[in-house]
Amino acid sequence: MNIEIKKSIKPINYFNAIELLEKRLEDLYKNKCKELIWILEHDEIFTAGTGYKENEILDNSINLIKTNRGGKITCHSPGQLICYFVLDLRKKKDIRKFISCIEKTIIETLKEYKIETFSDKNNVGIWHKKNKTVSKVAAIGVRVKKWIAYHGFAININNNLNQYKKIIPCGIRDKGVTNLISIAKNDYSKLDNLLIEKFISNLKI
Predict the structure, then answer these.
(1) From residue 167, how far is each of 16, 37, 160, 173 by CA, in Å?
(2) DSSP state of 200
(3) What are the pLDDT digits (tens) for 150-195?
(4) H or E segment and range at residue 102
(5) Which residues pair with 166 in a beta bridge?
(6) How far is C-alpha 174 from the geometric centre of its chain's CA atoms?
(7) Which residues fall within 8 angstroms of residue 169, CB to CB, at 6 or more apart?
(8) Options 3.30.930.10, 3.40.190.10, 3.40.50.150, 3.40.50.360; CATH of 3-203
(9) Predicted local confidence at residue 181, as pLDDT
(10) E-assigned strand segments in 45-190
(11) 3-class SS at 81?
(12) Considering Cα of 52, then 153, then 187, then 116, what sign does the dihedral take?
């Protein structure tokens, strides 16, 4: 597979990132560039997907950015690994299979750290169960345009979970939000490399 892997060290401005993805999509559609997987962080920002509702905002002081991705409201902040991509689905044209590939990638990656997680067909994302509490550890928000998939997914590593009290995360009221450091105090510094490796492997299937 001819995929460019991009890893940004410093936090990337959200609007600049989306602008890059949109341009990349157009270039890829014209076969002028490679596909892209991009690992990064954002400074704190609340974004809303196309399915959000106003009553999912609990703190009106937040600055909410409306986007064209799928899903509802989430918070991006330091300590959260974001994986953006621009990937060509024109040969397969199977969105459900592509989402399953993302789910499988995250679940397999976290299993390497002895963390058991699962997907839920009724609630998009990747979940962890501790005692009887189910909490989201990774969010998925994808848009497909001209059969090219972009936007991406985010894994909470050691981000500030208090920010999620200002919203109904992803519109789900009866479940929590967690991060990896709350589940198991591992060294997650190589998680990005493992994630990329598994993502590319699963995309080939």
Answers:
(1) 24, 28, 14, 10
(2) H
(3) 999 999 999 999 999 999 998 888 899 999 999 999 999 999 999 9
(4) helix 95-111
(5) none
(6) 21
(7) 72, 73, 74, 75, 136, 139, 177
(8) 3.30.930.10
(9) 98
(10) 45-48, 64-66, 73-76, 80-88, 118-120, 123-130, 133-145, 148-156, 176-177
(11) strand
(12) positive
C-alpha to C-alpha distance for 43 and 113, rounded to whole angstroms: 26
Cβ-based neighbour number of residue 188 at 10 Å: 19
Answer whether 94's CB lies under 8 Å from 149's CB.
no
Summarised one tens digit per residue, pLDDT across range 54-66 is 999 999 999 899 9
Tell me how far apart the alpha carbons of residues 42 and 11 are, in angstroms, rounded to a whole number: 5
Q: CA nearest 88: which of 152, 202, 196, 3?
A: 3
Secondary-structure percent of the chain, ordered helix, strand, coil, rounded to 5: 30, 35, 35
Residues carrying an active site annotation: 170
Give me the amino acid identity at 73. I
| 3-state SS assignment for residue 53 | coil
- Token pair for residue 122? 């009724």
pLDDT confidence of residue 70:
81
In DSSP terms, 86 is beta-bridged to 36, 150
